[in-house]
Amino acid sequence: MVFEDCLIGFKELRPLVHLLLPLFFHWIAEEMTVSVLVDVLTSALCPDQTTCSEVIYINGLQQTVVGIFKMVVLPLLGQLADEYGRKLLLLITISTSMFPFAVLACNQSRDAVYVYYVLRTISFILSQGSIFCIAVAYAADLIKEENRAAAFSWITGFFSASHVIGNLLARFLPEKYIFVVSIALLIFGSVYMYFFLAETVEPVEKRERDSTFLTNIINFTRKRYESMRYAAVLVFRSPTLKVISLVSFFYELGMSGISSVLLYYLKAVFGFNKNQYSEILSVVGVGAIFSQVWSGDNLSAVSFTNLKELLCLNNENCGLLSLEGGNMLIKRLYMVHLFFALITS
């Protein structure tokens, strides 16, 4: 029965092939740099040392800046995707990742690392979280409502599979080739999406040509504000959405602090390098593939009370897995499934 449900969910992915393939390569390219970045950044900012407080401070500052701007940018990108199309916004967001890695592929000096941090911060603001949200919206445009949970579970299953492959590539590729291969995969994903991905949303009509530039800017800003205000009011008026928002806030508050320093802690205390990081993350990714595919395919049969229990169990497991080097984003996507089921139950 479980196998049949999983097979049904897999069949629902046929309309999403041209979405999942470029995203699959994009996620591989992103993940294969995670383990090597610890060594590269530490070596550049703190030569001949196994620990580097400067890197940890900069990562914390980066997370703070990204979090502040994402509060505005993420809902804005979602609204623009509704009006101007999913494909355009996906192309913009996935294309931002190649520039930071291009800097490190050319130069890994201290100055180059600072440039990388600036570009990576901008990339995170535009792409972190927004790619998955827009991809889910694209899938919702094509998949029937009763099959969406299963389809979403397969999307996150592919996400976890890409992390496994990315970590395996990082494990066996020499360090000097990792950024080059990553950039090649990122370019391939963007080009493939440009030529083969079909748009599912009709763009809004262009503004009248006799409107002045200033008028267009004012109208655009007012429309964005009203739309974001409506979304905020909707969340606060819904008891379910309000609780979900609070749970997400405190969950991210704890997990972001752990995930930002965990790999550097392992390097400082145990002397880990990219090979050990890749092996640990690969093991976690393999387990995530099966757990996400199974959970998403069976969420429709789980009661509201059991869903709340799953959320609590997921939070505890995330805290334990983080001590073993687990990828925080995989756990966050698992929570998306549970939240989606809570909203629709």
Write the layout of secondary structure elements.
Layout: H1 2-11, H2 17-31, H3 34-45, H4 53-84, H5 86-95, H6 98-106, H7 110-127, H8 130-142, H9 148-172, H10 175-196, H11 213-237, H12 239-270, H13 274-298, H14 304-322, H15 328-344
Helix pairs in contact: 1-9, 1-13, 2-9, 2-10, 3-13, 4-5, 4-7, 4-12, 5-8, 5-10, 6-7, 6-10, 9-13, 9-15, 11-12, 12-14, 12-15, 13-15, 14-15
Structural notes for this entry:
InterPro entries: MFS, MFS_trans_sf, Sugar_transporter_CS. It is a multi-pass membrane protein. The chain crosses the membrane at residues 88-105, 117-139, 151-170, 177-197, 243-266. It holds the Pfam family MFS_1. This is MAJOR FACILITATOR SUPERFAMILY DOMAIN-CONTAINING PROTEIN 10. It is globular and about 55 Å long. It has a single domain (2-200, 218-230, 239-344), classed as Growth Hormone, Chain: A. The protein is an all-alpha fold. It contains 15 helices and no strands. Residues 315-345 have low confidence and may be disordered. It starts with a helix and ends with a helix. 82% of the residues lie in helices and 0% in strands. It has helices at 2-11, 17-31, 34-45, 53-84, 86-95, 98-106, 110-127, 130-142, 148-172, 175-196, 213-237, 239-270, 274-298, 304-322, 328-344.
